[in-house]
From TrEMBL:
<feature type="domain" description="Exonuclease">
    <location>
        <begin position="6"/>
        <end position="183"/>
    </location>
</feature>
<dbReference type="InterPro" id="IPR047201">
    <property type="entry name" value="ERI-1_3'hExo-like"/>
</dbReference>
<dbReference type="InterPro" id="IPR013520">
    <property type="entry name" value="Ribonucl_H"/>
</dbReference>
<dbReference type="InterPro" id="IPR012337">
    <property type="entry name" value="RNaseH-like_sf"/>
</dbReference>
<protein>
    <submittedName>
        <fullName>Sporulation inhibitor KapD</fullName>
    </submittedName>
</protein>
<keyword id="KW-0269">Exonuclease</keyword>
<dbReference type="InterPro" id="IPR036397">
    <property type="entry name" value="RNaseH_sf"/>
</dbReference>
<dbReference type="Pfam" id="PF00929">
    <property type="entry name" value="RNase_T"/>
</dbReference>
<keyword id="KW-0540">Nuclease</keyword>
<dbReference type="InterPro" id="IPR051274">
    <property type="entry name" value="3-5_Exoribonuclease"/>
</dbReference>
<keyword id="KW-0378">Hydrolase</keyword>
Length: 207
């Protein structure tokens, strides 16, 4: 018996340079991960963790301030290798779809895997929900995650730029967009004129 499709809503937070004058070899590293696993429209697992960066282990003031994250929390996090083990455990290549808001999450994950010499763990379908949202509503520019959910008259889950909260918010927007898509895809109800050939009735009773 085949397993149902698995949807992984993923958000990562990254290190960032202090300003534009950062080292030429700088690259963003994942320091927080949030994952929401969904089957049959039901959340079956939530995962949240901090990850210790290796190339640039000391967070900049800008990074700590923007993400409201402490050096201590990151230092106590798991290694990047352990994060890959978690991602591999979902076996996404067999039945999974990864959904993110924007394309940076997967790009940084791929770059971090290359740095550590590890194979990419999410060899499956990937959906950038921000682009789906943009196309669906005909927006010229991409909309930020929390602005998008507010445009639906809702509020984001928890705090913005917390990985698990953003992953949950992405899942909530996905459900709202899918609901709108299904509503628009419904055929229009037939009218009495569609069901009855009125011309035949008119001809029958014509004088």
């Amino acid at each position: 018996m085949s397993l149902p499709p698995l949807f992984l809503f993923i958000d990562f937070e990254f290190t960032m340079p202090e300003n534009r004058h950062y080292p030429k070899n700088f690259f963003p590293e994942i320091i927080e991960a949030g994952i929401v696993a969904v089957e049959k429209d039901q959340i079956i697992q939530q995962f949240s963790t901090y990850i210790k960066p290796k190339a640039f282990p000391i967070l900049t003031d800008r990074c700590r301030s923007f993400l409201n994250i402490s050096q201590k929390k990151v230092d106590e996090g798991i290694s990047f290798f352990e994060l890959i083990d978690v991602l591999n455990s979902f076996k996404a290549e067999e039945r999974g779809t990864v959904i993110t808001w924007g394309n940076m999450d997967m790009r940084v994950l791929k770059n971090n895997c290359d740095y550590h010499g590890l194979p990419f763990p999410l060899a499956c379908k990937q959906v950038d929900l921000s682009m789906e949202y943009k196309k669906f509503f005909g927006d010229q520019n991409q909309t930020g995650l929390w602005k998008a959910v507010q445009e639906y008259g809702k509020e984001g889950t928890g705090k913005h730029h917390r990985a698990l909260d953003d992953a949950l918010t992405t899942y909530n927007i996905f459900r709202l967009v899918e609901k709108d898509k299904s509503y628009l895809a419904r055929p229009k109800p037939t009218t009495i004129g569609d069901r009855i050939d009125l011309s035949k009735i008119m001809n029958k009773y014509a004088l």
